[in-house]
């Protein structure tokens, strides 16, 4: 699978994005929240590293993507389709995605969502739950910590871009 993102671009973003995404995943699993500071930090990473990683002509278009996605995700939050933290994280993550990779990203997200959901539910209903007994996500009924899948998706996308980008 070849991705439109360049390996150089993905490698510039990866060392900054991975720890942040791991924090978002942990936070959403443990407290069912994605901290605003994490979302703002993700956006700041793009604002700074994007200047180095991207061609000058692409940078403003990626920033515009963040704004458009933020407006769309705000609407999704208002009508109750997703949580505010998830919406803001998606908007902050949007400029990291090459526009030519929207299709493959949907497949990466679908696979991650399924894997994260199954993993969470298995852990919730087995002895694995004792490894983190106080996580809020265990007792939220049908609600799922989407930051788990969203963070994993951004990491996977950039890692695949580093390996299979064009």
Automatic annotation (TrEMBL):
Sorted alphabetically, which keywords does the UniProt record give?
Hydrolase, Membrane, Protease, Transmembrane, Transmembrane helix
Q: Does the keyword Transmembrane helix apply?
A: yes
Gene3D superfamilies under this entry? 1.20.120.1220
Domain Prepilin type IV endopeptidase peptidase span(s) in chain numbering: 17-117
- Quick check: keyword Calcium in the entry? no
Pfam families, per database record: Peptidase_A24
List the GO cellular component terms: membrane
One GO BP annotation is:
proteolysis
Report the transmembrane regions from the record.
12-31, 37-56, 63-82, 102-123, 144-164
Molecular function GO terms recorded? aspartic-type endopeptidase activity
* Record-given protein name: Flp pilus assembly protein, protease CpaA
Species name for this entry?
Roseovarius indicus
**Which lineage?**
Bacteria, Pseudomonadati, Pseudomonadota, Alphaproteobacteria, Rhodobacterales
